[in-house]
Amino acid sequence: MTLSRRTFIATGLAAGSVLHAPVVFGQSRPKVVVIGGGAGGGTAARYLAKDSKGALDVTLVEANPIYTTCFFSNLYLGGFRDFESLQHGYDGLAASGVTVINDTATAVDRQARTVTLAGGQVLSYDRLVLSPGIDFKDGSVPGWSLADAEVMPHAYKAGPQTQLLKQMVEAMPAGGTFAMVAPPNPYRCPPGPYERISMVAHLLKQTNPTAKILVLDPKDKYSKQALFEEGWQRHYDGMVTWVGPDFGGGSVEVRPAAMEIVVDGEVQKVDVCNVIPGQMAGKIAQIAGVTDDSGWAPVDPASMQSKLDANVWVLGDSSAQGDMPKSAFSANSQAKVAAMAIRGELTGSRTFPAKYSNTCWSLIAPEDGVKVGASYEPTPDKIASVHSFISQTGEDAALRKVTFEESLGWYAGITADIFG
Amino acid sequence: MRRRHLLSALVLLAVGVGIWPGAGPVAAAPIGDAERGALLFARQCSACHQLGKGAVNRVGPQLNRVFGRTAGSVEGYKYSKSMARMGSDGLVWTLDTLDAYVENPRSLVSGTRMAYRGMKDAEARSALLAYLREWSDKPQNIPEAEPTARASGLVLDPAILAIQGDPDFGEYLSSECTTCHQRDGSDQGIPAITRWPTEDFVAAMHAYKRKLRPHPVMQMMAGRLSDEEIAALAAYFTTLD
Q1: CB < 8 Å to B182, chain A
Q2: B157 — alpha (psi -120 to 50), left (phi > 0) or beta?
Q3: Chain A: nearest CA to B122, how far in angstroms?
Q4: Low-confidence spans in chain B with pLDDT less than 70
Q5: Which CATH number describes the domain made up of B2-134?
Q6: Containing H/E element for A175?
Q7: Superfamily of segment(s) B158-237
């Protein structure tokens, strides 16, 4: 028998009066719980709900009712964007059919397939998507703990920390010193610390031109290095000093109470200190037990499914997948592969071979934008880079301007893709 | 108005043929039949473009020394946003890029203002390009000048255009596009990709794949798409409003 819309409604009404059919229908829909409403989780939740057309019960758990993107937060530091322009609500996801809960997940029972929230609610799931971003490793920078972030901000999760760092830079005394303790690999947004240096330099050049910027780096090379070095020389000549591991950049202690840093035993007074510590998968991934000794969550390169639990997917910064950088673009790309795979398992929809890609734009100075990107394919061992490109040193101003404008278009595009 | 343009173009044309009668040291590897190209130019191009001695910008930019020139760079000519963007991205007019552009202008520059539907016949295009080439730098004068010999095998195979794409597959593939390109057709910094005629879309993707279009992100994205995947994307995009 074929049900027409009319007979379906009539049957539903008749059955509903006796059997409470709508409730039964509701419970029979497979449940996906997504933890983390950023580039990975927001995209996954929206695509799961939108593409399953109501066949899946999708719940997003995100602590913040308004999300502040870490990507482009450096442009706020540089004065190129309002803070509000980084903020996005979840109405678009709700309109796509996602149930949005503003709470924090505190426990995952993978046997019972439940998630417990701080507010006491317990959510059951058929598939769980974890996209909690990063957390900081204790003891990564001697002398610094999260409790010191009000004095020496990390500003590496966007929000009040970003605003605090900007206020501190603006309040620096004339000729003062801004220090950054750069993170070891792997970390969120590889060019991020260096774009931040560019933005702080841009701000200081206008308001405090005799100020100095000191970068203490445990890495001997970093993303887009030649482009940043060229840009710093061109736009901020003499302002930025980068100290690599050969000169003590890797053995730094900070003293937040005294606003001092100790580089290779030498004590130096600083006015602002931005500590970006070593990183690991977001706490809930650790709690769920899907991370390994590296602190990150290993996943199947073909689907982003956890290697430790077939009912769990891990996306974005938290995942250990291979060659892709930890970026919003990567998380968004991975989320689409994961959403397709999960939908295929739960609803029998068609699945296709995974494709991944990434591009990261950075701003060095007004209208001086650069980019780096690559496409990726799953191999048995890892997600592997297949093609890549990078902006060149010596490019003309017109191309750099177009690249910057393109980055603005990308921000508008990806935030529409994540948040609806 | 139109008649007068045509006449002046014919005068320029006569000068052109007078100076370079089509034979000479480089005639061993000709692009095509330049004399036939001159006639094609007079019929199909000269209402808007001038070429030859004293050529100036009219409805379209003047075309002297077009070979080796960056797209959108003729002084004093107001280009479309799309052409200006291509120039900034690094599109340079060569035999290959001009051939693709003349074949289907929008396959190379989506929002070009050139209201010309394209020259489908490959031999005719070769003739036209041979004629245009006469008015660019000569290899004997400038060793770095653009080649006068034709590259081969760059025309889009009709079999590629005939592939029936799988729209479901295209929908999945399109999610990679929407990280940057917005479905609502916004065109700020990154071009819109909605409402493209299917054939133009396929031609454009292949132009990136063949690196005729210059943008590095798009060369990378299109570079790994198979003919079937491009067809699938085209099939999906035609289902959108």
Answers
A1: 412-413, 416
A2: beta
A3: 32
A4: 1-29, 139-145, 147-155, 241
A5: 1.10.760.10
A6: none
A7: Cytochrome c-like domain (1.10.760.10)
